Amino acid sequence: MKERMPVLKPRVVVHGGRRRRSSAGLLPRLFAAACLLLAPLSRAATVVTRLPGFDGALPFRLETGYVGVDDATGAELFYYFVESERSPRADPLVLWHSGGPRCSALSALAFQIGPVRFAEGRYDGTLPRLVRNPYSLTQLASILFVDSPVGTGFSYAPDPRGYDVGDISASLQILTFLRKWFDDHPWYLSNPFYLGGDSYAGKVTPLIAQHVSEGKIPYCHSFGIISDQLYEAAVINCDGDYVNPTNKLCSDVVQTINDLKSEVDKQGILDLKDALRRKSLAEEHYPLMSGPPEEPPFGCLAYRYYLYFWVNDNATRASLGIKEGTVTEWIRCKISGELPYTSDLPSSIEYHLNLTTRGYRALVYSGDHDLTVPFQGTQAWIRSLNFSIVDDWRAWHLDGQAAGFTITYANNLTFATIKGGRHISSENRPKECFAIVKRWLNNEPL
């Protein structure tokens, strides 16, 4: 099947909650399998109790911090963690990063699915005001908003080479991020775990889910770093746990694999040309990405204007625990070409196929007023999976009216449209998006 570009970037993708085994039992094992040869921890976290522009103490728990994902360049990913406002020890945990690539996750937190939003009003030079978002998904789940890849939002690298990433390397860095974050927050290992993203993030989310579900040994096998025989020996003798071998056969094969992995660059294993290009970046100059967006008309949905001035205010940066000297100027979305990025994942369809056939639930939804990635393209690649239909195309309703259309396929794959939804449907149809995610997380029909 010949693919068109819109097919590669579904609007929103959420993976998780494997049906054959509970995620509570899977998570410790999955992350153990993904932890081989990772560097020592390097983190700094801040509990935020107040935010400039918000009246009073925050009525939800907000934590921000950095997680090191590459010792060679010192690269660190910045995150915002909002604990579920309902039942944090039982509710799902969702890792969410925005599209772009290199659009800050703060966009999702302040404009889309997070617990606050900007009060509408023309910018008058004072600090913009924040209010509660009645349709925040943090009423249903704890959410990790991650500035990924490096160079996004407040994520940074002291060494310029750290900014040279792509679909595959950035996805592996998310895996490193998760391992370290769970080391610091082990009480969430028993919670149901989901991965989600919108726009360009919908392309790489299935790849990240694949990494989480399989760990790095199958990944090394797929790139020819280890042989079929070694891979099969690891699968047979280790029973999925490659960190704490329970027998000598497993211990021996893991050691051999580790020796082979040490022969390649974990951040870029493609070819010599790419390695030489990365090395030359150390001497390149990265221009300052400056300048606020143009002021939108009053009532316009382009809240970028408010966010830019709010987040670059010194009081805001202090509240969020931003390290001085790391990111001089926060930009919502880096323009393509300002920092290197390699789109080395031609398609994520095979990962959707693998994950869903193995029993992981998936929700894909699209706004039906989006010309950037029309929903017909998303529907087309889903149909290409050739899954049988469980619940045929029908309207789904909210407040007694049709809010979009949906279809459910075998292997727990659900596709839905948001009536009137834009490129990021949660910005202009927040109530509808809240309803659809709530029903799906609760295993209810849309």
UniProtKB/TrEMBL annotation:
SUPFAM superfamilies: alpha/beta-Hydrolases
Keywords: Glycoprotein, Signal
Taxonomy, superkingdom: Eukaryota
One function term, GO molecular function aspect: serine-type carboxypeptidase activity
Keyword Transcription (UniProt): no
Residues in the signal sequence: none
InterPro entries found in the cross-reference section: AB_hydrolase_fold (IPR029058), Peptidase_S10 (IPR001563)
The UniProt record lists the keyword Signal: yes
Positions of transmembrane segments: none
GO BP annotations listed: proteolysis; secondary metabolic process
Membership in a protein family: Belongs to the peptidase S10 family.
Name listed for the protein in its UniProt record: Serine carboxypeptidase-like 19
Originating species: Panicum hallii var. hallii
